[in-house]
Amino acid sequence: MSKYIGPVCRLCRREGEKLFLKGSRCLTPKCAFERRGYAPGQHGKEGQMKKRGRSSDYATQLREKQKARRIYGVLERQFRRYYTQAVSSRGLTGEVMLQLLERRLDNVVFRLGFAENRAQARVLVTHGHFNVNGRRTDVPSMVLKPGDEVEVREGSRSRTYFKSLPDTAGSRSAPTWLSRDTGRLWGKVLQAPARQDIDAKVNEQLIVEYYSR
Q1: Does residue 194 lie in a domain region?
Q2: In this structure, are 110 and 157 located in the same domain?
Q3: Domain for residue 36, yes or no?
Q4: What is residue 24's predicted lDDT score, i.e. its pLDDT?
Q5: Are residues 30 and 19 in the same domain?
Q6: Strand-strand pairing, 149-152 and 130-132
Q7: Rounded to 5°, angle at Cα 67 from 65 and 73
Q8: What is the helix (H) or strand (E) element at residue 150, kind and residue range?
Q9: Is the Cα dihedral 79, 196, 146, 184 positive or negative?
Q10: pTM here?
Q11: What is the pLDDT of residues 49-106, one digit of tens each?
Q12: CA 209, CA 213: separation in Å to the nearest integer?
């Protein structure tokens, strides 16, 4: 499946709920979902008005899987790979899969408050603005382990965006499984996130059922 490059607000409208893909903009009246909370397309509003009955189990499972993919911004092949890895790991498959997604480098950068949303975090990582354990890293999909440290590279700190980052990052709270120092633009993975630490509104059991058909 190719990468989606269209308006991300259409993804929220397709799933019928806010996925917060644009960060703080999603909390303002400018949010497209607030103005048009129905599916995109010529017949989106009409289809919503005519929608009756109960969706099939397959449709419900598919929509949950698509929603999770869009929240974390991963392609189908990547997403299935996380599921396969979770199946072979100890613990609940769905929870382990979400933990892997949460520990992606781009998501950790976002959770630390160093980016407005995951898409921006992916761009910042790809451009090489971050070190992981002291080494420059430009792979957003890198899965971090407890004890790994993330910090903004010294050569990037003089850029306008990173100069103002301590103030903007400080206004956002970080999850308990991460430690950070906004003044140093540094963060550390303390442990794997527990399910209650993952705020993505996803029913992971439906995703497991989808792939185990």
Answers
A1: no
A2: yes
A3: yes
A4: 55
A5: yes
A6: antiparallel
A7: 100
A8: strand 149-152
A9: positive
A10: 0.80
A11: 445 556 799 999 999 999 999 999 999 999 999 999 999 999 999 999 999 999 999 9
A12: 6
